[in-house]
Amino acid sequence: MIFPSFSQYLHSQSCLLLDWGQVPYSQAWEAQQQLVQERRDRPDLPDVLILLEHPPVYTLGQGAKLEFLKFDGETTPELHRVERGGEVTYHCPGQLVGYPILNLRRHQQDLHWYLRQLEEVLLRVLAVLGIKGERVPGMTGVWVEGRKVAAIGIKVSRWITMHGFALNVCPDLAGFAQIVPCGIPDKPVGSLEQFIPGIEVDRVRAIVVAEFAEVFGVEFMPDV
């Protein structure tokens, strides 16, 4: 997947928005790697935000512990170990996944700042929906009434980011029973649907785009 040079947009406010619908995890992972490499080779290329959903899949962070898997051996779900930090998590339809590919030299060269900014985007999205989200000291992600509704796991290399966040909008949460999500045994996973019955990903996607643009100070341009 090769993108043209967008010379007319080459400033710190530019971000390419890629809204891909439902994409297999391995395909999106490969696309991220290519987009990151292009930006290593061409630092003038604009930042990117990919928004999508995945078919059911489990992913392990690069240092994730296998003890957090509960698979019974009778089934072999799709499982990938990837470059991001963090423990095991689960993706499925109804969960909005965001992969920002940002050059942090244009923003702030600080990984803790970046994680907190991603949390801030999600907290603002919840606020727009009338839901009070919270951070938990010492952990990464967003919670509502003690339930983790958003997970974050990133990889940053040469200040270019990949991987990102997963917001549980209206997924089937049963898949999380096969793991200890994010390695946290004492905090259940939740979804926005538990607080706003009938909510759909399409409603949330536009809010994520608006709040991401505000928090990171970018102006989105469409894919062409």
Task: Note down, in words, how this protein is organized.
- The chain has 224 residues and is of the alpha/beta class.
- Helix content is 23%, strand content 27%.
- The chain contains three helices and ten strands, in the order βαβββββαβββαβ.
- A hairpin with a 2-residue loop joins β8 and β9 (160-168).
- α2 crosses α3.
- The two termini are 13 Å apart.
Indicate the overall shape. globular
Uncertain parts: 1-12
The quaternary structure here is single chain
Structural class: alpha/beta
Strand content: 25-35%
Gyration radius from CA atoms, angstroms: 17 Å
Write a brief caption for the model.
The protein is of the alpha/beta class. It has helices at 25-41, 111-128, 201-216; strands at residues 14-22, 47-53, 57-60, 79-81, 89-91, 95-101, 142-144, 147-157, 160-168, 219-222. Helices cover 23% and strands 27% of the residues.
List the helices and strands and how they pair.
Elements: E1 14-22, H1 25-41, E2 47-53, E3 57-60, E4 79-81, E5 89-91, E6 95-101, H2 111-128, E7 142-144, E8 147-157, E9 160-168, H3 201-216, E10 219-222
Parallel strand pairs: 1-2, 1-10, 3-4
Antiparallel strand pairs: 2-6, 3-5, 6-9, 7-8, 8-9
Features:
224 residues; alpha/beta; seven-stranded mixed β-sheet; three-stranded mixed β-sheet; 10 strands; 27% strand
